[in-house]
User: Which sequence fits this backbone?
């Protein structure tokens, strides 16, 4: 098969306008070029591709079936070119055109979506992929390049990643408003005796700390319910039990019929931003850090 010479985007643009407008004179006027220039471009394109695109008649041009098919391809090409232009602009401005983010469940229901929202405000053309994974899964995914950045629970052990702590909180106890513990100002570990305790599905670093304290202090629970973190506050509000969890998650889930109480002993939650070391000068990392400081 002979080679096809497609070295001019201008000829495709003129062909597209011709197909849409039907005459060389109207096309020339719209594009701001001469009618002879339109005719030369069409003739050159037909010569390069090896077949006629229009039937020439006195009243105008009649598109051939081949022209109709080529028009569809040109529309796709123009769309891809526009997408490429947006990608180049995003690369120039932010260092990325596509951004893949992973976060632990404890930050994924409000905190990280707010950060993503602000990133999109800065760059509306940025393509974002967001997923919720465990800390270990995020570490492996960022190391392998499946994700660009991750938001994880500390501690983190990785020689390939830059680990930047950004926030630390202390666990709170979430109880139904009509629960006996609701009358207490501060809920202590021993107050959980006889309660149904709601904890995030295992494995969970923070839940492990709490369960270790319960076992160490011989606290006898009534029962224990494991659930997806997104449903825990809803379960509490429906009087299923009480929970000791990260206050950011409680705030993000915004459930009714619950009370949030201080909890002792202190259980710390430390979170970090992780990314590959070759990303440390990337503009997007700086934007994320700036957003975190303002959040």
Assistant:
């Amino acid at each position: 098969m002979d080679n096809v010479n497609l070295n001019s985007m201008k000829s495709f643009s003129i062909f597209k306008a011709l197909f849409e407008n039907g005459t060389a004179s109207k096309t020339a006027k719209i594009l701001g070029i001469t009618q002879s220039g339109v005719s030369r471009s069409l003739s050159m394109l037909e010569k390069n591709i090896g077949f006629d695109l229009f039937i020439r008649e006195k009243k105008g041009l009649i598109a051939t079936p081949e022209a109709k098919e080529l028009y569809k391809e040109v529309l796709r090409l123009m769309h891809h070119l526009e997408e490429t232009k947006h990608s180049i602009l995003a690369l120039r401005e932010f260092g990325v055109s596509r951004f893949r983010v992973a976060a632990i469940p404890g930050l994924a229901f409000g905190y990280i979506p707010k950060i993503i929202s602000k990133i999109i405000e800065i760059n509306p053309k940025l393509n974002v992929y967001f997923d919720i994974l465990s800390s270990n899964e995020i570490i492996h995914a960022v190391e392998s390049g499946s994700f660009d950045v991750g938001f994880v629970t500390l501690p983190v052990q990785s020689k390939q990643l830059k680990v930047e702590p950004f926030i630390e909180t202390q666990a709170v106890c979430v109880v139904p408003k009509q629960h006996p513990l609701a009358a207490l100002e501060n809920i202590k570990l021993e107050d959980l005796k006889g309660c149904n305790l709601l904890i995030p599905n295992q494995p969970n670093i923070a839940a492990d700390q709490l369960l270790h304290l319960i076992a160490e202090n011989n606290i006898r629970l009534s029962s224990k319910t494991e659930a997806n973190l997104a449903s825990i506050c809803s379960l509490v509000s429906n009087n299923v039990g009480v929970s000791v969890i990260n206050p950011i998650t409680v705030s993000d889930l915004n459930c009714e019929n619950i009370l949030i109480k201080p909890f002792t002993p202190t259980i710390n939650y430390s979170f970090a931003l992780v990314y590959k070391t070759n990303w440390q000068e990337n503009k997007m990392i700086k934007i994320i850090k700036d957003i975190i400081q303002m959040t």
Residues 95-167+271-294 form a domain with the D-Maltodextrin-Binding Protein; domain 2 fold (CATH 3.40.190.10).
